[in-house]
């Protein structure tokens, strides 16, 4: 099975716009984000992630990893489905991250 980073995929497809990333990779979210930092900084898409502690642990990450990768890019999170803002990990949930700056 071939594996490609988000940055590599965006470059290969010559994307000129990216508005939303829905990423359900069973704990590998941190790896996807690390492989897409240039894309996230360039396009600043909304990102829908399922944050599940045991799944992230299998991939060698924690929920705090997600926030530590996205916060420096100006992303803030809303817990779904109620849209309540969260400033860090607040329990396993689907979260929508939006670039605020």
Structural commentary:
- The protein is an alpha+beta fold and 101 residues long.
- The chain has a single domain, classed as Translation Initiation Factor IF3.
- The protein is 35% helix and 25% strand.
- It contains five helices and five strands.
- The protein has helices at 6-13, 29-34, 37-43, 53-58, 63-70; strands spanning 20-23, 46-51, 75-79, 84-86, 93-99.
- The protein has a five-stranded mixed β-sheet.
- A hairpin with a 4-residue loop joins strand 3 and strand 4.
- The longest helix has 8 residues, at 6-13.
- The radius of gyration is 13 Å and the shape is globular.
- The model has no long low-confidence stretch (mean pLDDT 95).
Q: How far apart are the first and last residues' alpha carbons, in Å? A: 37 Å
The tally of structural domains comes to: 1
Low-confidence stretches: none
Helix content: 25-40%
User: Topology as H/E string?
Assistant: HEHHEHHEEE
Annotated CATH topology: Translation Initiation Factor IF3
Indicate the radius of gyration in whole angstroms: 13 Å
The amount of beta strand, in percent, is 15-25%
Strand order of the largest sheet: 1-2-5-3-4
Work out the helix count: 5
CATH architecture: 2-Layer Sandwich
**Main sheet characteristics:** 5 strands, mixed
What oligomeric state do the depicted chains represent?
Answer: single chain
Shape: globular
Helical/strand content category: alpha+beta
């Amino acid at each position: 099975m071939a594996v490609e980073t988000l940055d590599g995929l965006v470059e290969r497809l010559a994307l000129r716009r990216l508005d939303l990333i829905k990423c359900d990779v069973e704990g590998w979210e941190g790896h996807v984000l690390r492989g897409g930092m240039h894309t996230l900084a360039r396009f600043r898409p909304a990102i829908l992630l399922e944050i599940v502690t045991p799944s992230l642990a299998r991939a060698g990450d924690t929920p705090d990893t997600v926030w530590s990768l996205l916060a420096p890019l100006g992303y803030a999170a809303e817990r779904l489905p109620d849209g309540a803002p969260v400033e860090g990990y607040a329990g396993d949930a689907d979260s929508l991250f939006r670039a605020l700056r």
